[in-house]
Backbone:
């Protein structure tokens, strides 16, 4: 029986702050010319400073009064932070690389096309031209597009402070909405992605929330590796917008490992993925979409492998 | 504290002192007096405030004016040259791509950036290029057509 | 084939050049010396008594020039029912209602000052469901409703939250049901949506030393606003001047009625003649301007086995939010159209306009008719499927024609292009083609009235050099009125369109116009400018007749040249004629006041007969992904009867724009209300309007069913173009995958749920 709709929809979410500022509150604006200088400032102002890369997240949040930094540290006077380098083993992306730059990079289109796809899913041209890959990761929106793709690609994140540096797997970087492992004095300075193993194929697929250009309702990144016997030697699966943070679908990966590729396998993998997620809003629908899109992404990844053979 | 910035707007050099909490759209509209760039939402969603920053379309409501030191900005007022309209401006007029006009400045600049990079786009590419520009009046149909006609006019 | 010089010509808009060069001036571009900036403090409660407002700290902040609260504004305004306070008085009725306002030297200071205002509330029971709000004994949102001034036609039910109730009867529906072979009962709902004009609302108010208040405002109806301000504030019209900025960036009904000026004016009265400007943030537009009435429409329909609709009963409940605004008249117009453009002998319509503690619902493109069309066109397909009759055929079988009595019985219909619209749409697609899997086609039609009676005046001034200036208060909101009114004057006077200047609406200068709403401007203001131009022309020809030694009835003007049909070689320019007559200088002034009344009109504003009805039909072809429930609209076609297309270019633009606008509420848009009554999605990120990548292939068709009283036969178009789209899409989805959704918006979640219940994979 079709549910009789109501002429309005009730939600029991907490009410949002109801004010968007027309004029940003005052702040001190700093433009260091070297990375060590930037790290020093970050350390020195301990929690009272925010990094400005593209600014598409920072400025909105300052307008919404979610962030009121006393100091804003603009990185764009520092040269050499917008690199995309691939030496055949590692792809290294600098902190000022924008989503447009990633999507338009011939090196990435050729060797890591799913990352280009994930970056094209971000916002609209204006946002992609400004927003950086690193900045977007640090903003840690649960519905961000690049984390699932980066998780599938096995990306590592380098975080630096004036005390030193550390490297972390991308899936460990996120914990809860808009929170990351970054300490106040740390900056995300590089995203590193290993080259794809032989007989690998990847895909990033996503369902928008409503319209074609929209936040992501469900994002799926997969990297499938097969052996010559058409058995899955490894599967890496990143899922986005299905819980408080993007996750690596360990159970699904386990499920696929060692199995022979046959018609029903990917659908079953989808079912396993659906059991690994805990979406809050539109939960039933999101779980359905995980089933469908994990299957479709694995199909597409398989297609890439078969094409290359 | 005010910062001194040097930039070029529509080909003209400017040296200005501004407070860092000034967004580029407010700077252009209030300080420079170029009101052709519009504010529809002030949060980077509608694209009415789109200008070209070093040739790339961005939402000027989310860029700090202080961050444009050494940059080249193009607004709708700078589209024409020597009193002549840009082909896009001509086709927008001729093809009926303008109704209330509030999204028009942003649309023109997103379209120009597209044609500068890709002189012969297809319909899908035009739609992608203006996906960040909201319009409630036209349904986008004639805007897309105007861009395609301009591309042909410009030799694409 | 064209016998006209300007009418029917697809000329580019005369305001396009200004707009594409960034030179067009809109409200926010206006700046005056010593201007102050205003911000509002808005309620966080949907329903609460205000116990205390402390503005002392705000007043003391350096840079603050004035602070006002409801104590400064003991007025109530409103067109249908005067229930609307400029600033909340004693209680707040929706989240986002303005409680206080501040004017300061800059926006930063004003925003800071707002945060210093302290308010004590006593929360009251919040009513969000209109059906609960309607119940007898429900807590009252407007305790003093029975004391409000109102239009004669408005009938509130005392001691309830129902601010207007109405009924139309024709024949006997119960008898009709008995005589029918099939009976259908369905309830359809529509959600809260918003206009989405890209330009936010603004106003600038200034009081001069004599106490005269001038307001520059993005309002669609300067004279109506002036009247509203005069009635609510109790000040004479001569003390009020409303000026429209040269251009308004989109309206769709959202910029009508008392808005931002209700905050700027009280502030301006305290700022020592300094102008006070306020621009709403996008968030404030969402919470505190207007929305479309969420509707619950129940249709009980009796049908004969050959497909004739024999009896139809409609119950229409419109949720008008915290204040009535245009609610009662929206409900009224919707009820007149509720049973659809069909020949139905037995009709009963009951309409209710109900208060709730939600954002204020008001005029929105379609004025209540999209919601009833959603119902009658969805049910028409349910009926068609059950009876095994083709959806196009069943509409042609029942559709009204020239001379038919209107469904609610008040008038005989003339200028009825309904069937032509339906046929043209069906012909333009391969309607009878074999069905493809997961793809479907749907059709829907509708009709819409215009507020009747309503008046428009115009003045046409012909200057010494032949330049023509038109004084008309129609606001150029993007619909192209400036251009087509200029075309009409050009045609009537016989001069090139380039010679016409359209004045900016200013109540001190341009004469009365009821409003730029209701799709009425082409017909009403069109007639006014046409007749004013004729008046000027007649005067010119009298003088010219003398100079040409001819009969003025033999004279013509073409491209500014006057000549006699009998002796065309002797020509005079308009300039020569005027200069010759008035050597020391003067001009020719033509005027007209147009106030048409429909046959059967029962007197007073908002009678049921409409001076004209617009008709239209939409087609949608969709493809449904049965794994995700996502709907892809492949193609839409819209045919609209406009009487006569004054400018086919702008007409087609309206049809295309309207159809895409209509897709929004059908599939994407919904304002989500939280438990406390607050709007959850107050940005374009979360309120999803169609973008370029969402549009299908679009075909627009103009149909012309000449209206004998329209200027050159023209009627109107603006609103009708959104009306049938939602039902066309729903009907296409039903055709594609057998899923019938009755509550908007149609979402993938809803479709998938039904598909799974039905056992689809």
Residues:
């Amino acid at each position: 029986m079709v549910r009789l709709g109501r002429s309005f929809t009730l939600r029991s979410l907490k009410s949002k702050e109801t004010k968007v500022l027309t004029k940003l509150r005052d702040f001190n604006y700093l433009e260091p010319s070297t990375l060590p200088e930037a790290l020093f400032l970050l350390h020195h102002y301990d929690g009272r400073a925010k990094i400005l890369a593209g600014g598409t997240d920072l400025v909105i949040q300052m307008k919404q009064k979610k962030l009121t930094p006393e100091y804003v540290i603009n990185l764009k006077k520092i040269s050499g932070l917008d690199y995309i380098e691939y030496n055949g083993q590692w792809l290294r992306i600098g902190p000022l690389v924008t989503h447009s730059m990633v999507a338009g990079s011939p090196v990435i289109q050729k060797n890591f096309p799913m990352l280009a796809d994930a970056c094209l899913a971000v916002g609209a041209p204006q946002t992609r031209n400004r927003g950086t890959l690193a900045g977007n990761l640090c903003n840690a929106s649960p519905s961000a597009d690049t984390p699932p793709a980066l998780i599938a690609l096995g990306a590592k994140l380098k975080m630096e402070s004036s005390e030193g540096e550390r490297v972390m797997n991308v899936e460990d970087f996120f914990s809860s909405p808009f929170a990351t492992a970054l300490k106040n004095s740390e900056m995300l300075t590089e995203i590193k992605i290993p080259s794809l193993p032989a007989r690998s194929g990847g895909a990033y697929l996503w369902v928008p929330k409503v319209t074609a250009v929209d936040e992501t309702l469900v994002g799926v990144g997969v990297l499938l590796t097969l052996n010559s016997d058409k058995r899955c030697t490894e599967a890496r699966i990143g899922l986005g917008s299905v819980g408080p943070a993007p996750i690596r679908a360990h159970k699904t990966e386990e499920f696929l490992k060692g199995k022979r590729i046959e018609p029903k396998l990917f659908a079953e993998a989808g079912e396993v993925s659906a059991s690994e997620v805990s979406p809050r809003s539109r939960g039933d629908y999101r779980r359905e979409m995980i089933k469908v899109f994990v299957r479709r992404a694995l199909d597409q990844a398989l297609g890439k492998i078969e094409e290359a053979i | 504290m005010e910062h001194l910035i040097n930039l070029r707007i529509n080909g003209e050099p400017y040296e200005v002192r501004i407070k860092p909490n000034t967004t580029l759209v407010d700077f252009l509209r209030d300080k420079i007096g170029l009101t052709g760039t519009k504010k529809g939402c002030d949060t980077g969603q509608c694209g009415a405030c789109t200008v070209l920053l070093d040739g790339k379309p961005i939402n000027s409501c989310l860029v700090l004016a202080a961050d444009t030191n050494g940059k080249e900005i193009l607004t709708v007022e700078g589209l024409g040259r020597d009193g002549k309209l840009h082909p896009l401006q001509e086709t927008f007029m001729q093809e009926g791509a303008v109704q209330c006009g509030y999204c028009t400045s942003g649309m023109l600049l997103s379209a120009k950036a597209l044609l500068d990079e890709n002189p012969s786009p297809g319909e899908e590419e035009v739609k992608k290029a203006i996906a960040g520009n909201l319009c409630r009046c036209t349904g986008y149909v004639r805007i897309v057509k105007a861009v395609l006609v301009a591309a042909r006019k410009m030799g694409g | 084939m064209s016998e006209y010089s300007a009418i029917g010509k697809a000329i580019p808009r005369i305001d396009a050049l200004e707009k594409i060069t960034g030179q067009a001036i809109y409200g926010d571009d206006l700046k005056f010396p010593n201007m102050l900036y205003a911000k509002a403090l808005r309620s966080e409660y949907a329903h609460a008594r205000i116990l205390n407002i402390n503005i002392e700290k705000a007043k003391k902040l350096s840079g603050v020039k004035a602070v006002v609260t409801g104590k400064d504004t003991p007025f109530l305004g409103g067109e249908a029912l005067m229930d609307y306070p400029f600033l909340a008085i004693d209680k707040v009725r929706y989240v986002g209602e303005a409680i206080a306002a501040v004017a300061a030297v800059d926006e930063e200071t004003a925003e800071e000052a707002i945060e210093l205002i302290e308010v004590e509330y006593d929360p009251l029971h919040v009513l969000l469901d209109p059906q609960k709000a309607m119940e007898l004994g429900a807590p009252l949102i407007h305790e003093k409703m029975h004391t409000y001034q109102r239009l004669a036609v408005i009938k509130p039910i005392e001691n309830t939250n129902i601010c207007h109730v109405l009924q139309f009867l024709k024949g006997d529906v119960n008898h009709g049901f008995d005589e029918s072979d099939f009976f259908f009962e369905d309830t359809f709902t529509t959600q809260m949506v918003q206009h989405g004009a890209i330009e936010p609302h603004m106003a600038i108010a200034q009081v001069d030393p004599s106490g005269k208040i001038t307001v520059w405002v993005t309002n669609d109806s300067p004279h109506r606003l002036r009247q509203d301000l005069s009635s609510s504030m109790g000040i004479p019209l001569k003390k009020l001047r409303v000026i429209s900025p040269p251009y308004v960036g989109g309206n769709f009904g959202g910029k009508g009625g008392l808005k931002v000026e209700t905050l700027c004016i009280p502030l301006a009265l305290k700022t020592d003649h300094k102008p006070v400007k306020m621009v709403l943030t996008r968030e404030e537009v969402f919470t505190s301007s207007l929305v479309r009435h969420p509707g619950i429409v129940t249709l009980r329909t009796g049908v004969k086995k050959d497909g004739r609709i024999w009896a139809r009963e409609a119950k229409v409940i419109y949720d008008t939010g915290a204040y009535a605004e245009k609610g009662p008249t929206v409900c009224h117009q919707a009820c007149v159209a509720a049973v659809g453009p069909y020949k139905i002998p037995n009709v009963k319509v009951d309409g209710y306009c109900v208060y709730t503690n939600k954002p204020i619902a008001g005029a929105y493109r379609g004025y209540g008719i999209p919601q009833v069309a959603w119902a009658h066109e969805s049910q028409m397909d349910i009926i068609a499927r059950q009876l095994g009759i083709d959806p196009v055929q069943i509409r042609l079988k029942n559709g009204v024609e020239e001379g038919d009595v209107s469904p609610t019985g008040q008038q005989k219909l003339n200028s009825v292009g309904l069937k032509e619209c339906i046929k043209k749409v069906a012909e333009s697609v391969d309607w009878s083609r074999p069905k493809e899997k997961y793809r479907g086609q749907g059709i829907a039609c509708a009709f819409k009235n215009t507020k009747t009676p309503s008046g428009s005046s115009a003045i046409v001034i012909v200057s010494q050099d032949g330049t023509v200036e038109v004084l008309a208060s129609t606001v150029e909101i993007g619909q192209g009125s400036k251009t087509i009114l200029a075309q009409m004057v050009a045609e009537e006077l016989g001069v090139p369109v380039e010679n016409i200047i359209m004045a900016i609406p200013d109540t001190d200068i341009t004469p009365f116009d009821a409003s730029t709403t209701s799709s009425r401007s082409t017909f009403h203001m069109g007639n006014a400018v046409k007749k004013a131009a004729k008046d000027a022309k007649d005067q010119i020809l009298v003088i010219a007749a003398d100079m040409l030694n001819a009969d003025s009835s033999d004279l013509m003007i073409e491209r500014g040249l006057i000549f006699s049909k009998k002796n065309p070689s002797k020509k005079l320019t308009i300039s020569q004629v005027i200069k010759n007559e008035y050597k020391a200088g003067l001009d020719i002034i033509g005027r007209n006041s147009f106030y048409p009344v429909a046959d059967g009109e029962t007197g007073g504003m908002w009678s049921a007969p409409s001076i004209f009805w617009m008709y239209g039909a939409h087609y949608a072809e969709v493809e449904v992904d049965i794994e995700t429930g996502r709907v892809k609209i492949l193609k839409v076609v819209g045919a609209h009867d406009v009487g006569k297309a004054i400018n086919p270019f702008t007409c087609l633009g309206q049809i295309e724009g309207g159809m895409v606008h209509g897709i929004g509420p059908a599939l994407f848009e919904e304002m989500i209300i939280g438990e406390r009554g607050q709007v959850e999605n107050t940005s374009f990120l979360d309120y999803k309007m169609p973008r370029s990548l969402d549009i299908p292939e679009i075909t627009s068709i103009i149909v012309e069913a000449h209206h004998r009283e329209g200027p050159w036969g023209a009627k109107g178009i603006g609103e009708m173009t959104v009306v049938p789209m939602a039902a066309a899409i729903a009907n296409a989805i039903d055709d594609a995958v057998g899923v019938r959704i009755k509550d908007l918006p149609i979402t993938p979640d809803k479709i998938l749920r039904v598909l799974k219940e039905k056992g689809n994979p």
